[in-house]
């Protein structure tokens, strides 16, 4: 299952770091951050709870850039 989320991030470098953090989160099959569109697309592994995983993705991204935001 794929879902798109609106994000807020200050620079392209931070967006790349957010993408890598999302990809490393257990339960995430793939993730893409579109800096210019301020959008994150996340593909979840089969049978996973997307809401719980996105909470962890948000925590992981906040560690990289405290100012970033993912609107769930």
Low-confidence stretches: none
Sequence of secondary-structure elements: EHEEHE
Radius of gyration: 11 Å
Helix content: 25-40%
* Secondary structure tally: strands: 4
How many helix segments? 2
Question: How would you explain this protein's 3D organization?
Answer:
With 72 residues, the protein is α+β, with helices and mostly antiparallel strands. It has two helices and four strands. Strands 2-3-1-4 form a four-stranded antiparallel beta sheet. Strand 2 and strand 3 form a beta hairpin. Helix 1 packs across helix 2. The two termini are 16 Å apart.
List the helices and strands and how they pair.
Blueprint: E1 2-8, H1 12-23, E2 28-34, E3 39-44, H2 50-64, E4 69-71
Antiparallel strand pairs: 1-3, 1-4, 2-3
Helix pairs in contact: 1-2
Keywords:
72 residues; alpha+beta; 4-stranded antiparallel sheet; 4 strands
Please give a quick description of this structure.
With 72 residues, this protein is an alpha+beta fold. It has helices at residues 12-23, 50-64; strands at residues 2-8, 28-34, 39-44, 69-71. Strand 2 and strand 3 (39-44) form a beta hairpin.
């Amino acid at each position: 299952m794929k879902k798109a989320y609106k994000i807020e991030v200050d620079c392209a470098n931070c967006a790349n770091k957010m993408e890598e953090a999302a990809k490393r989160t257990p339960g995430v099959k793939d993730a893409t951050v579109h800096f210019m569109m301020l959008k994150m697309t996340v593909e979840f592994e089969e049978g996973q709870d997307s809401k719980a995983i996105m909470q962890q993705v948000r925590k992981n991204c906040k560690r990289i850039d405290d100012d970033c935001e993912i609107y769930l």
